[in-house]
């Protein structure tokens, strides 16, 4: 039986993924399609407590990379079992603002923890709950920075130096190359309306296949984003 897709959004801070999550939710509202929005870390009472510990808790600057990795996985394993899996089983579309690719990229590629260990822990945390499609919004550090005009103090991750975010960007681009059937790399510096249209072009046929809605569109892939290294 066809089911509604489990969709994830990824990218570095300031890439515009939260805007696109909201815009996709708007499309589903208009079509009357049930969906669940999640964010990570967080999304459950336990996960939100872990989020606070990871981002703003006093003394968290002494957190080791290994502890950080395990906390992200702990938050995710709770979210999957308490919220995401039950939603998928009820036939609800799930839209996640970050999922296990964030750990692959931030803790694996950027923190340089053992990538096999990171993958094993990802699998342990999510079991068989794997996204059907993942949109990575690719932006350079300057664009990301210009969009991060937050009135609050930066959280622990946001205090990382520029080269950390270069590794994050590279990590996502490598991921898109490794998993082209699942991961769609989108130029996040484009106009938000254009990005919304690109994403909806790719997704609308997946929804019409399940709901029979006539607003289908051919599956279209956005033009590849040029590699910053070349
Ligand atoms: P954000 O969702 O508001 O961007 O904040 C989440 C922060 O946590 C962001 O800096 C990315 C980071 N993060 C990881 O380092 N690993 C993870 O597995 C997840 C989910 C997030």
Task: Walk me through this protein's architecture.
- By secondary structure, this protein is of the alpha/beta class.
- It has one domain: P-loop containing nucleotide triphosphate hydrolases (Rossmann fold, 3-Layer(aba) Sandwich), CATH 3.40.50.300.
- It has eight helices and five strands; from the N terminus they run βαβααβααβααβα.
- The chain has helices spanning 17-31, 45-55, 65-90, 100-110, 115-126, 141-147, 162-178, 192-211; strands at residues 6-11, 35-39, 93-97, 133-138, 183-187.
- The chain has a five-stranded parallel sheet, sandwiched between helices.
- α2 packs antiparallel against α3 and α4 (100-110) runs antiparallel to α5.
- It is globular.
- It starts with 5 loop residues before the first strand and ends in a 19-residue tail after the last helix.
- The model is unreliable at 214-225 (pLDDT under 50).
- The site of thymidine-5'-phosphate has 11 residues, from α4.
- Residues 13, 39-41, 72, 98, 102-103, 106-107, 157 line the site of thymidine-5'-phosphate.
In a nutshell, what does this entry contain?
The chain has 230 residues and is of the alpha/beta class. The protein has helices spanning 17-31, 45-55, 65-90, 100-110, 115-126, 141-147, 162-178, 192-211; strands spanning 6-11, 35-39, 93-97, 133-138, 183-187.
């Amino acid at each position: 039986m066809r089911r509604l897709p489990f969709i994830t959004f990824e990218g570095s801070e300031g890439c515009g993924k939260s805007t696109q999550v909201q815009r996709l939710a708007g499309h589903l509202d208009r079509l009357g399609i049930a969906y669940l929005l999640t964010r990570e870390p967080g999304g459950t009472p336990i996960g939100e407590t872990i989020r606070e510990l990871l981002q703003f808790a006093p003394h968290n600057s002494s957190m080791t990379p290994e502890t950080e990795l395990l906390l992200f996985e702990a938050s995710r394993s709770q979210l999957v079992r308490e919220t995401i899996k039950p939603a998928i089983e009820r036939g609800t579309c799930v839209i996640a603002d970050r999922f296990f690719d964030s750990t692959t990229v931030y803790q694996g590629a950027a923190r340089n923890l053992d990538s096999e260990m990171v993958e094993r822990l990802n699998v342990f945390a999510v079991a068989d709950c794997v996204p059907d499609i993942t949109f990575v919004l690719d932006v350079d550090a300057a664009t990301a920075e210009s969009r991060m005009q937050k009135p609050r103090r930066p959280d622990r991750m946001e205090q990382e130096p520029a080269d950390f975010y270069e590794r994050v960007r590279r990590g996502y681009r490598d991921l898109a190359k490794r998993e082209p059937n699942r991961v769609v790399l989108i130029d996040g510096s484009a106009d938000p309306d254009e990005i919304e249209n690109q994403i909806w072009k790719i997704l609308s046929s997946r929804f019409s296949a399940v709901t029979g809605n006539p607003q289908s569109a051919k599956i279209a892939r956005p033009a590849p984003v040029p590699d910053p290294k070349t």
